[in-house]
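Progress against Task 2.4 (sequence-to-structure conversion) is shown through the following example record, which the project officer requested during the mid-term review.
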Amino acid sequence: MGVWQSTKMHLLRGLLIYKISYIYCYYCNSFMWGIIELLIYFDHFLNRRKYI
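Structure tokens generated for the chain above:
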């Protein structure tokens, strides 16, 4: 009984953390992609300046 109770709690907590992290990751991913695109753009810009 006690084991099942703790397992259920553990699963519920895991599900909650999963949902929260999913929402966070959704925003984080768009944010990260924005940063990555900026870095690629800057890299491209710097490389172009190097060749000129």
